[in-house]
Amino acid sequence: MDGLSYEILQNxxxxxxxxxxxxxxxxxxxxxxxxxxEEGGFxxxxxxxxxxxxxxxxxxxxxxDTCARLPFPNFVTPKNLLLYLAYSVLISLPFLALMFALTxxxxxxxxxxxxxxxxxxxxxxxxxxxxxxxxxPHTVNDNTSGVLTLVEAIGRMSEEERAQCAFVFFxxxxxxxxxxxxxxxxxxxxxxxxxxxxxDCVSDGDDFLFVSSxxxxxxxxxxxxxxxSAAEGKTLHFESTLTAFYPSDQAxxxxxxxxxxxxKKPLAGLYMSRIHTAKDTVLQEENLAYFAEGAKKLxxxx
Length: 302
Hints:
Blueprint: H1 3-11, H2 18-31, E1 36-40, E2 45-50, E3 58-63, H3 81-110, H4 112-132, H5 140-156, H6 159-162, E4 165-170, H7 178-186, H8 188-191, E5 195-199, E6 207-212, H9 214-227, E7 235-240, E8 256-265, E9 269-271, H10 285-301
Parallel strand pairs: 3-4, 3-5, 5-8, 6-7
Antiparallel strand pairs: 1-2, 2-4, 6-8, 8-9
Protein backbone atom coordinates (compact mmCIF):
# COMPACT_ATOMS: atom_id res chain seq x y z
CA MET A 1 0.00 0.00 0.00
CA ASP A 2 1.14 3.57 -0.60
CA GLY A 3 1.77 6.20 2.07
CA LEU A 4 -1.71 7.70 2.00
CA SER A 5 -3.29 4.27 2.44
CA TYR A 6 -1.16 3.58 5.51
CA GLU A 7 -2.02 6.98 6.96
CA ILE A 8 -5.75 6.38 6.55
CA LEU A 9 -5.47 2.91 8.06
CA GLN A 10 -3.47 4.10 11.05
CA ASN A 11 -5.11 7.44 11.81
CA UNK A 12 -8.44 7.85 10.04
CA UNK A 13 -10.59 4.78 10.62
CA UNK A 14 -13.27 6.73 12.50
CA UNK A 15 -15.28 8.99 10.19
CA UNK A 16 -18.72 9.19 11.76
CA UNK A 17 -19.43 12.67 13.16
CA UNK A 18 -19.43 15.82 11.07
CA UNK A 19 -16.23 17.01 12.79
CA UNK A 20 -14.48 13.68 12.13
CA UNK A 21 -15.53 13.80 8.49
CA UNK A 22 -14.38 17.42 8.14
CA UNK A 23 -10.91 16.55 9.42
CA UNK A 24 -10.74 13.57 7.07
CA UNK A 25 -11.85 15.70 4.10
CA UNK A 26 -9.18 18.31 4.82
CA UNK A 27 -6.50 15.62 4.97
CA UNK A 28 -7.70 14.00 1.73
CA UNK A 29 -7.73 17.32 -0.11
CA UNK A 30 -4.15 17.98 0.98
CA UNK A 31 -3.03 14.57 -0.24
CA UNK A 32 -5.12 14.35 -3.42
CA UNK A 33 -4.91 17.62 -5.39
CA UNK A 34 -8.08 18.25 -7.33
CA UNK A 35 -10.34 16.41 -4.88
CA UNK A 36 -13.46 18.51 -4.42
CA UNK A 37 -16.55 18.36 -2.22
CA GLU A 38 -20.04 18.13 -3.69
CA GLU A 39 -22.42 19.09 -0.90
CA GLY A 40 -26.18 18.89 -0.70
CA GLY A 41 -29.21 16.78 0.11
CA PHE A 42 -30.77 16.03 3.49
CA UNK A 43 -29.17 15.28 5.81
CA UNK A 44 -26.33 17.34 4.38
CA UNK A 45 -24.09 15.03 2.37
CA UNK A 46 -20.50 15.77 1.45
CA UNK A 47 -19.37 13.52 -1.38
CA UNK A 48 -15.71 13.71 -2.38
CA UNK A 49 -15.07 13.68 -6.12
CA UNK A 50 -11.82 13.34 -8.05
CA UNK A 51 -12.18 13.68 -11.81
CA UNK A 52 -15.08 14.57 -14.07
CA UNK A 53 -18.02 12.24 -13.45
CA UNK A 54 -19.91 13.76 -16.36
CA UNK A 55 -17.22 12.92 -18.94
CA UNK A 56 -15.76 9.75 -17.42
CA UNK A 57 -16.08 6.35 -19.06
CA UNK A 58 -16.45 4.71 -15.66
CA UNK A 59 -16.96 5.92 -12.09
CA UNK A 60 -15.30 4.09 -9.19
CA UNK A 61 -16.88 4.62 -5.77
CA UNK A 62 -16.72 3.72 -2.08
CA UNK A 63 -18.44 5.18 0.96
CA UNK A 64 -16.19 6.90 3.49
CA ASP A 65 -18.62 7.37 6.37
CA THR A 66 -18.41 4.82 9.19
CA CYS A 67 -20.94 3.19 11.47
CA ALA A 68 -21.89 3.00 15.12
CA ARG A 69 -20.43 0.12 17.13
CA LEU A 70 -23.04 -2.61 17.55
CA PRO A 71 -23.21 -5.41 20.14
CA PHE A 72 -23.75 -7.84 17.27
CA PRO A 73 -22.31 -8.01 13.74
CA ASN A 74 -24.09 -6.95 10.59
CA PHE A 75 -24.43 -10.41 9.04
CA VAL A 76 -24.90 -10.37 5.25
CA THR A 77 -25.64 -13.43 3.08
CA PRO A 78 -26.10 -12.20 -0.51
CA LYS A 79 -27.11 -15.58 -1.94
CA ASN A 80 -29.27 -16.63 0.99
CA LEU A 81 -32.00 -14.04 1.37
CA LEU A 82 -34.05 -16.15 3.77
CA LEU A 83 -31.16 -16.38 6.26
CA TYR A 84 -30.45 -12.66 5.90
CA LEU A 85 -34.07 -11.79 6.69
CA ALA A 86 -34.19 -14.24 9.60
CA TYR A 87 -31.08 -12.70 11.13
CA SER A 88 -32.48 -9.19 10.66
CA VAL A 89 -35.63 -10.19 12.53
CA LEU A 90 -33.56 -11.86 15.27
CA ILE A 91 -31.50 -8.75 16.06
CA SER A 92 -34.70 -6.67 16.08
CA LEU A 93 -36.36 -8.84 18.76
CA PRO A 94 -34.81 -7.06 21.79
CA PHE A 95 -36.12 -3.72 20.54
CA LEU A 96 -39.56 -5.14 19.79
CA ALA A 97 -39.63 -6.68 23.27
CA LEU A 98 -38.74 -3.29 24.78
CA MET A 99 -41.44 -1.61 22.72
CA PHE A 100 -44.15 -4.06 23.83
CA ALA A 101 -43.02 -3.91 27.47
CA LEU A 102 -43.16 -0.12 27.54
CA THR A 103 -46.50 -0.08 25.77
CA UNK A 104 -47.95 -2.61 28.23
CA UNK A 105 -46.65 -0.51 31.13
CA UNK A 106 -47.75 2.91 29.89
CA UNK A 107 -50.97 2.22 27.96
CA UNK A 108 -53.12 1.30 31.01
CA UNK A 109 -52.07 4.54 32.70
CA UNK A 110 -51.95 6.98 29.79
CA UNK A 111 -54.17 5.36 27.20
CA UNK A 112 -53.35 6.05 23.55
CA UNK A 113 -50.63 8.49 24.56
CA UNK A 114 -48.93 5.76 26.60
CA UNK A 115 -49.05 3.32 23.70
CA UNK A 116 -47.57 5.97 21.44
CA UNK A 117 -44.78 6.70 23.93
CA UNK A 118 -43.95 3.01 24.22
CA UNK A 119 -43.70 2.75 20.44
CA UNK A 120 -41.64 5.94 20.25
CA UNK A 121 -39.14 4.85 22.93
CA UNK A 122 -38.71 1.43 21.35
CA UNK A 123 -38.05 2.88 17.91
CA UNK A 124 -35.79 5.52 19.43
CA UNK A 125 -33.67 2.86 21.10
CA UNK A 126 -33.30 1.03 17.79
CA UNK A 127 -32.29 4.19 15.93
CA UNK A 128 -29.77 5.09 18.62
CA UNK A 129 -28.10 1.68 18.69
CA UNK A 130 -27.96 1.23 14.91
CA UNK A 131 -27.20 4.79 13.81
CA UNK A 132 -26.49 7.30 16.56
CA UNK A 133 -24.47 5.33 19.09
CA UNK A 134 -20.71 5.56 19.74
CA UNK A 135 -18.53 5.25 16.66
CA UNK A 136 -17.06 1.87 15.87
CA PRO A 137 -13.29 2.29 16.48
CA HIS A 138 -12.37 -0.40 13.94
CA THR A 139 -13.64 -0.07 10.37
CA VAL A 140 -10.98 -1.89 8.37
CA ASN A 141 -13.44 -3.79 6.19
CA ASP A 142 -16.46 -1.47 6.37
CA ASN A 143 -15.47 0.61 4.61
CA THR A 144 -11.90 1.73 5.07
CA SER A 145 -11.08 -1.10 2.65
CA GLY A 146 -13.16 0.54 -0.09
CA VAL A 147 -11.55 3.92 0.55
CA LEU A 148 -8.09 2.35 0.35
CA THR A 149 -8.99 0.55 -2.87
CA LEU A 150 -9.81 3.88 -4.54
CA VAL A 151 -6.62 5.45 -3.17
CA GLU A 152 -4.55 2.52 -4.43
CA ALA A 153 -6.24 2.64 -7.86
CA ILE A 154 -5.58 6.38 -8.15
CA GLY A 155 -1.92 5.82 -7.32
CA ARG A 156 -1.49 3.04 -9.87
CA MET A 157 -3.09 4.86 -12.81
CA SER A 158 -1.32 7.17 -15.21
CA GLU A 159 -2.64 10.69 -15.78
CA GLU A 160 -4.16 9.51 -19.07
CA GLU A 161 -5.97 6.66 -17.34
CA ARG A 162 -7.23 8.86 -14.51
CA ALA A 163 -8.58 11.31 -17.07
CA GLN A 164 -10.92 8.60 -18.36
CA CYS A 165 -12.55 7.85 -15.02
CA ALA A 166 -13.80 9.50 -11.86
CA PHE A 167 -13.50 8.52 -8.20
CA VAL A 168 -16.26 9.30 -5.72
CA PHE A 169 -16.17 8.80 -1.95
CA PHE A 170 -19.80 8.75 -0.79
CA UNK A 171 -21.09 10.18 2.47
CA UNK A 172 -24.03 8.83 4.53
CA UNK A 173 -24.09 5.28 3.19
CA UNK A 174 -24.63 3.97 6.71
CA UNK A 175 -27.71 6.21 7.07
CA UNK A 176 -29.43 4.56 4.11
CA UNK A 177 -27.38 5.16 0.92
CA UNK A 178 -28.19 8.87 1.16
CA UNK A 179 -24.95 10.30 -0.23
CA UNK A 180 -25.06 8.13 -3.34
CA UNK A 181 -28.77 8.83 -3.72
CA UNK A 182 -28.12 12.56 -3.79
CA UNK A 183 -25.20 12.09 -6.21
CA UNK A 184 -27.42 9.99 -8.49
CA UNK A 185 -30.09 12.70 -8.58
CA UNK A 186 -27.51 15.45 -9.14
CA UNK A 187 -25.90 13.57 -12.05
CA UNK A 188 -28.99 11.73 -13.25
CA UNK A 189 -28.50 12.35 -16.97
CA UNK A 190 -24.78 11.52 -16.97
CA UNK A 191 -25.18 8.37 -14.88
CA UNK A 192 -28.11 6.99 -16.86
CA UNK A 193 -25.85 4.82 -19.05
CA UNK A 194 -22.48 5.12 -17.29
CA UNK A 195 -20.79 2.19 -15.58
CA UNK A 196 -20.32 2.63 -11.83
CA UNK A 197 -18.22 0.17 -9.82
CA UNK A 198 -18.69 0.39 -6.05
CA UNK A 199 -16.19 -1.15 -3.59
CA ASP A 200 -17.70 -1.90 -0.19
CA CYS A 201 -16.10 -4.30 2.31
CA VAL A 202 -13.35 -5.85 0.19
CA SER A 203 -10.62 -6.76 2.71
CA ASP A 204 -12.01 -9.77 4.61
CA GLY A 205 -12.55 -12.87 2.51
CA ASP A 206 -11.29 -14.94 -0.42
CA ASP A 207 -14.57 -15.12 -2.36
CA PHE A 208 -14.95 -12.01 -4.50
CA LEU A 209 -18.53 -11.08 -5.31
CA PHE A 210 -19.56 -8.84 -8.22
CA VAL A 211 -23.29 -8.01 -8.26
CA SER A 212 -24.34 -6.22 -11.45
CA SER A 213 -27.58 -4.52 -12.38
CA UNK A 214 -29.32 -5.92 -15.44
CA UNK A 215 -28.03 -3.10 -17.64
CA UNK A 216 -24.47 -3.40 -16.29
CA UNK A 217 -24.45 -7.16 -16.81
CA UNK A 218 -25.76 -6.86 -20.36
CA UNK A 219 -23.28 -4.19 -21.43
CA UNK A 220 -20.17 -4.72 -19.34
CA UNK A 221 -20.03 -8.33 -18.13
CA UNK A 222 -17.24 -9.26 -20.56
CA UNK A 223 -15.17 -6.20 -19.64
CA UNK A 224 -15.60 -6.88 -15.91
CA UNK A 225 -14.55 -10.51 -16.30
CA UNK A 226 -11.57 -9.43 -18.36
CA UNK A 227 -10.43 -6.83 -15.86
CA UNK A 228 -11.07 -8.88 -12.75
CA SER A 229 -9.66 -12.22 -13.83
CA ALA A 230 -8.58 -15.26 -11.84
CA ALA A 231 -6.34 -14.75 -8.81
CA GLU A 232 -4.47 -17.39 -6.84
CA GLY A 233 -6.38 -18.48 -3.75
CA LYS A 234 -9.45 -16.45 -4.69
CA THR A 235 -12.82 -17.47 -6.12
CA LEU A 236 -14.77 -15.06 -8.32
CA HIS A 237 -18.57 -14.87 -8.32
CA PHE A 238 -20.22 -12.78 -11.05
CA GLU A 239 -23.90 -12.39 -10.19
CA SER A 240 -26.82 -10.21 -11.18
CA THR A 241 -29.25 -8.40 -8.90
CA LEU A 242 -31.69 -11.21 -9.71
CA THR A 243 -29.43 -13.87 -8.17
CA ALA A 244 -27.67 -12.00 -5.34
CA PHE A 245 -28.54 -9.19 -2.95
CA TYR A 246 -25.88 -6.74 -1.80
CA PRO A 247 -27.17 -3.59 -0.07
CA SER A 248 -24.75 -0.81 -0.97
CA ASP A 249 -24.46 2.40 -2.97
CA GLN A 250 -24.44 0.83 -6.44
CA ALA A 251 -28.17 0.14 -5.96
CA UNK A 252 -28.90 3.83 -6.69
CA UNK A 253 -27.50 3.65 -10.24
CA UNK A 254 -28.90 2.05 -13.41
CA UNK A 255 -25.50 0.65 -14.46
CA UNK A 256 -24.15 -0.19 -11.02
CA UNK A 257 -21.85 -3.01 -9.92
CA UNK A 258 -21.27 -3.81 -6.26
CA UNK A 259 -17.95 -5.41 -5.34
CA UNK A 260 -17.21 -7.12 -2.03
CA UNK A 261 -15.12 -9.87 -0.43
CA UNK A 262 -16.95 -12.74 1.22
CA UNK A 263 -16.24 -15.87 3.16
CA LYS A 264 -18.11 -19.12 2.58
CA LYS A 265 -19.77 -21.82 4.67
CA PRO A 266 -21.83 -24.83 3.56
CA LEU A 267 -25.21 -23.73 4.98
CA ALA A 268 -24.93 -19.95 4.77
CA GLY A 269 -23.12 -19.86 1.44
CA LEU A 270 -21.33 -16.60 0.81
CA TYR A 271 -21.41 -14.45 3.92
CA MET A 272 -19.91 -11.39 5.61
CA SER A 273 -19.61 -10.91 9.36
CA ARG A 274 -17.60 -8.91 11.90
CA ILE A 275 -18.55 -5.55 10.35
CA HIS A 276 -20.13 -2.94 12.65
CA THR A 277 -18.26 -4.44 15.61
CA ALA A 278 -14.85 -3.99 17.23
CA LYS A 279 -13.77 -7.19 15.43
CA ASP A 280 -13.67 -5.39 12.07
CA THR A 281 -9.87 -5.50 11.94
CA VAL A 282 -9.07 -7.91 9.08
CA LEU A 283 -7.02 -6.45 6.24
CA GLN A 284 -5.96 -8.73 3.40
CA GLU A 285 -3.69 -6.37 1.49
CA GLU A 286 -3.64 -8.64 -1.54
CA ASN A 287 -7.37 -7.98 -1.93
CA LEU A 288 -6.81 -4.23 -2.21
CA ALA A 289 -4.02 -4.73 -4.75
CA TYR A 290 -6.22 -7.06 -6.80
CA PHE A 291 -9.15 -4.66 -6.97
CA ALA A 292 -6.96 -1.62 -7.63
CA GLU A 293 -5.23 -3.42 -10.52
CA GLY A 294 -8.62 -4.59 -11.77
CA ALA A 295 -9.89 -1.01 -11.86
CA LYS A 296 -6.83 0.01 -13.85
CA LYS A 297 -7.39 -2.84 -16.34
CA LEU A 298 -11.04 -1.98 -16.67
CA UNK A 299 -10.24 1.56 -17.76
CA UNK A 300 -8.00 0.24 -20.54
CA UNK A 301 -10.65 -2.28 -21.68
CA UNK A 302 -13.32 0.40 -21.88
